[in-house]
Design a protein that fits this description.
Elements (H helix, E strand, L loop, with lengths): L5 H11 L11 H20 L9 E5 L10 E6 L19 H12 L3 E9 L8 E8 L8 E3 L30 H17 L3 E5 L2 E3 L4 E9 L10 E5 H13 L6 E7 L7 E8 H7 L5 E5 L5 E8 L4 E2 L2 H5 L2
Parallel strand pairs: 2-3, 8-10
Antiparallel strand pairs: 1-2, 1-6, 3-4, 4-5, 7-8, 9-13, 10-11, 11-14, 12-13
Helix pairs in contact: 1-4
Length: about 325
């Protein structure tokens, strides 16, 4: 069997996840975002909606003068779990029906979507992981091809960049989060090693009764504002990504989901909230304000959305989506 251990996955994450190069400290917002995604999936599971959400992945678009944003692809990996066999001779995994449906919606608005499945050639050696991908959302059955060879429309990287040059302390990432995060990171690095691109993560895609919803999940405490009342902030980067989805429309909508906590130290859950992007754009503050550190440790700017415009996320409201 060709497998990976949890320790090997953890070591890879320490070199791939960005951090303060002087201290090696993992950005707190990055960690809290990971934890919120885990908690959200567990919450959906308790409500009976575990099959309604996709795995996390990446959305990438082409760059370069005259080519910026011309091509857009979404990539969803099969999660690599520790001590399971991923030998190159194994039968490749069939993507779920739900992911097919989600990617069909993406295809209709011009986003090519791929399910990526890994093979491990040498035990506990991340350098020997290879990927195959199949395009989903098309009316006819497609074959697996070597990834990322089958992705066109992107310029090849002319000079190598070291995406594994960090020494990040990832000890606070819980064990249950490591397989999915490792899988996403390895897929990202594989794609970025080959192509020039602009890439952003996909927290998940929620398959609703009416529409398909890319989701942005954040952990927040409400802040006071004399003009808005209590509000939740959203960094400009995720706001623009949600706006991109909205510009495509069709049956594709998007949601900003908040795990409200009592304080940043204990992180006790207060409630789950959501707001559709159309409503978010209507009520978001026009003037951004300075925020804390973003996911890569730099300064962020946020838009403010009044808390009273969010709805509680529960079984009833999910059924109405």
């Amino acid at each position: 069997m060709t497998t990976l251990s949890l320790e090997v996955m953890n070591d890879y994450l320490s070199s791939s996840i960005t951090s303060n190069r002087k201290t090696g400290q993992l950005n707190r917002n990055k960690l809290n975002g990971l934890l919120a995604e885990i908690d959200f999936r567990e919450y959906l599971n308790t409500l009976g909606f575990a099959e309604r959400i996709s795995v996390g992945g990446w959305i990438a678009r082409s760059v370069g003068a005259g080519n910026f944003g011309v091509e857009t692809v979404a990539m969803f990996p099969e999660t690599i779990f520790p001590n399971q066999d991923y030998s190159p001779t194994r039968t490749l995994t069939n993507p779920s029906h739900g992911l097919h449906t989600i990617c069909s919606t993406f295809h209709q608005i011009g986003i090519r979507s791929y399910f990526c499945t890994p093979s491990i050639h040498n035990i506990n050696d991340t350098h020997t992981i290879s990927w195959k991908a199949v395009q989903l959302g098309l009316p006819t059955e497609q074959n697996y091809y070597d990834f990322p060879d089958n992705i066109n429309g992107f310029s090849n990287r002319s000079r190598r960049y070291n995406f594994l040059g960090y020494e990040t302390d990832v000890s606070e990432i819980p064990s249950r989060a490591i397989p999915e995060e490792f899988t996403k990171e390895h897929l990202r690095v594989t794609f970025q090693n080959r192509y020039m691109q602009e890439t952003s993560d996909i927290d998940g895609i929620l398959w609703g009764n009416q529409f398909t919803y890319p989701i942005e999940i954040k952990e927040k405490t409400p802040a006071p504002d004399s003009a808005l009342g209590e509000y939740f902030g959203l960094d400009l980067g995720p706001f623009v990504k949600l706006a991109y989805y909205a510009s495509k429309r069709g049956n594709l909508h998007s949601l900003f989901i908040v795990r409200e906590i009592d304080n940043t130290e204990d992180r006790n859950l207060v409630n789950w909230w959501f707001i559709p992007f159309e409503k978010l754009a209507r009520y978001a503050s026009w003037v951004p304000r300075a925020g804390g550190k973003n996911m890569v440790g730099g300064a962020s700017a946020v838009v403010k959305i009044p808390k009273n415009q969010f709805e509680e996320l529960n079984r009833n409201t999910i059924n109405q989506l």
